[in-house]
Prior knowledge:
Chain B: This is Protocatechuate 3,4-dioxygenase subunit beta. Chain B: Residues 24-44 are annotated as: Disordered. Chain B: InterPro entries: Intradiol_dOase_C, Intradiol_dOase_core, Intradiol_RC_Dioxygenase, PCDO_beta_N, Protocat_dOase_b. The complex is a heterodimer of chains A (204) and B (259). Chain A is mainly β. Chain A is 5% helix and 26% strand. In chain A, the strands form 2 sheets. In chain A, strands 1, 4, 7, 8 and 9 form a 5-stranded mixed beta sheet that branches. A 4-stranded antiparallel beta sheet of chain A has the order 3-2-5-6, with no helix packed on it. The termini of chain A are close together. By secondary structure, chain B is mostly beta strands. Chain B has a single domain (7-246), classed as Protocatechuate 3,4-Dioxygenase, subunit A (Sandwich), CATH 2.60.130.10. Chain B contains 2 helices and 12 strands, in the order αβββββββββαβββ. In chain B, a hairpin with a 5-residue loop joins strand 6 and strand 7 (175-177). The site of fe (iii) ion (FE) has 3 residues of chain B, from strand 8.
Amino acid sequence: MTHGAHDDTGGARTALPTPSHTVGPFYGHALPFPGGEDIAPLGHPDGITVHGYVLDGAGRPLPDALLEVWGPDPRGAVPAVDGSMRRDPARGGHLGRNGVEFTGFGRIQTDADGHWYVRTLRPGARGRHAPYLSVCVFARGLLVHLFTRIHLPDDPAALAADPLLSRLDADRRDTLIAVAEGRAAYRFDIRLQGEGETVFLEFQ
Amino acid sequence: MTDAPTQADIDREIAAAHAAYQRRTADGAPVEHHPRRDYAPYRSSALRHPLRPPVTIDVSRDPELVELSSPAFGDRDVTDVDNDLTRQHTGEPIGERITVSGRLLDRDGRPVTGQLVEIWQANAAGRYAHRREQHDAPLDPHFTGVGRTLTDAEGTYRFTTVRPGPYPWRNHLNAWRPAHIHFSVFGTAFTQRLVTQMYFPHDPLFPHDPILQSVTDDAARQRLVAAYDHNLSVPEFSLGYRWDIVLDGPRATWTEEGR
Ligand SMILES: [Fe+3]
């Protein structure tokens, strides 16, 4: 995210980017939407639950972090369907998802204990990659959002062959792999700083 | 030692961070368009920024990356009046009515069409309609301060709202945020995701605000300030501000079918 004006692609890149700012503390009535954490269509057999905490450098959970989760369907296809936050034209409020279509996108605010969860579909593999959910982390105090990935632990061969995971030391690599808790539930904590700090990604 | 820092303390830290950035660029370091996450004058950042450098991913080697696609939003997600914050209640909000409009562009200057733009802001008195808000300025029963829209075929967005007031916060003693509108925008790739704030021209609070000043590059910081645009002003109704948004981060170089 720190491109100069003449760096990549050799193309024009003439427009200079708008700087990022923190979401601050008051996004709560604007960005979260009802059912944001329930991406999976109801009763889908490939549904999974991922949950955990977002923790600061002192190990304290953040009650005011916002996560966005974006992932492919179980076949590895990226959804192109809208309707994550369907609005009601009559009342102006949110209708929520229609319970059938899979949009792949969710937005979750950590609760007062710093806990979050998402119910989505088990992501399928794309290209050479082990399957993963992309995560974007926002918080008061965080001037530029952070990207990370949630991998599921079920296919060790796919994880071993993954182009990103195979570049990392074992302890760092493990911060990107959720822990199975049985019954299609997984634990994934995000540590913003210090001991066990989550691997965050920069795309160029 | 536990006393809150004064504005003078924060001003000194802001000046030191500016000077450090100028030394870096004078020594040939690249322009920094975004804040550093460890910007100390913004106290809340202290325990919330990674200490390790991010792991870099070269997207040109991998067109299959999930992050090179973006969530879809459409007419089901946004209703027609969601971009008019003055019409969400039975009465009219108090304050100076404004029209805020601009274009959403990528680094090549190409418009980003049909994507979601969300805003939130304080009311004219500087108070958010949020339960955790502690500032005792009056709430306005006719103003929630939340809006959303989709960019049109030229990448243009447009909101009708009232000009937000500045408000105090507790970063340091006598800390005041310049008036601003929070923006959340999506690009054609998740890598282009941006949350930021738009400011109003000539605000005397600019030099004292550690959030705005966290953008240490003078030209980059100026890009967060809207321009008054008389052509956008609506006769007998509102004053116009123009603010274009340019998304950073790589996008896919191919066009996805049907998007
Ligand atoms: Fe604010």
